[in-house]
Amino acid sequence: MKFPSKVLEETVNAIASLPGIGKKTALRLALHLTQDDKGKIDALVKSLQKLSTEIKRCTKCQMLSDSLVCDICNTSSRDNGIVCVVETIRDVMAIEDTEQFHGRYHILGGVISPLEGVGPEQLHIDSLVERVKNEDIKEIIMAVSPTIEGDTTIYYISKKLSDLNVSISTIARGVAFGGDLEYADEFTLGKSISARMPYLAR
User: Rounded to whole angstroms, how far apart are CA atoms 121 and 185?
Assistant: First the structure.
């Protein structure tokens, strides 16, 4: 693809570096921005700068937040005794959309996957154990995508928590095995949370 402008080429390459966006889509977006008024570009640049410099990770659950503690962890109406453990921020957003869960969250940042070089030390597992030790948590819901890696992660965490006084449950298998949690429809995901089952490590 030949570009009439070096600036345009650099912009297209930057946009195309984002996941799920190819060169043609990136070119279409870049050309749209050149034809739009300057105010939209300035607003986009300002938002991206804030995303880079101002956004924070919640010190409790690892959620993205404007402050050191996110709104979910700060809300007094949530149930402190139940923590839903998920892989990603998108999973929290998906579960919140169901309006079926009213406890807290803990974001692992992925699942254990030796083939991809992801071990327990790369995930937020130790901080979860510390939360169970220091907070009055009665139940951990493992809302991890139903894959082999997800099951391995659940097993590992259950062993780490085995000496602590906390029950562990998993979401019902209404979510298909091998699927990603974020792509489940709201009804199925909500019912999976409501119909969670005790987790028994084998």
Answer: 31
CATH number at residue 46: 1.10.8.420
Q: Classify the C-alpha dihedral 45-49-52-55 as positive or negative.
A: negative
Range of the domain at 187: 64-198
Q: Does residue 167 share a domain with residue 71? A: yes
Q: Please list the pLDDT of the chain residue by residue as tens digits (202 residues).
A: 788 889 999 999 999 999 999 999 999 999 998 887 678 888 889 999 999 899 999 999 999 999 999 999 999 999 999 999 999 999 999 999 989 899 999 999 999 999 999 999 999 999 999 999 999 999 999 999 888 899 899 999 999 999 999 999 988 765 554 556 666 667 667 766 766 767 665 5
94 and 37 belong to one structural domain = no
Predicted model pTM: 0.76
- Copy the structure tokens of residue 67: 């402050």
